[in-house]
Amino acid sequence: MNKFLYFAFTFLIIGCSKTPLLESSEAMVGTWIHYTAENDAHRIIINEDGTGSMEWIANGEVSRATKVREWYLDDNILAFGKAAFNGESYEIDKYPTFTWDEIINYYDTIQESSRYIILDDYYYAEE
To answer: Which of 126, 112, 114, 119 is nearest to 94 (CA)?
Structure first.
């Protein structure tokens, strides 16, 4: 029982130390999409109030979506909620930026003069 309480307390302390995303980077606001196949993608939605959601697209249709939660930032890790579970946090390799040339990376194409980010080594184009 003591180990459980210690784990729960540690988890609570670590989870509470995250900074709300918009306090660190307003540039992250947007809808970002990464294609894993021609009609399959992962969409990250970050609203102007710091909330958002995630969607998974299969065959061009939303096949799964999360509920709306807060986005947080902790040491270059974008986390979906204070207690981000498996698949709900992303290392930010490149913050939102503009491209002057078209970028083609597997199924992802970032058009000239548009914004993109790189999370966990994957390109996400702004929709």
So the answer is: 119
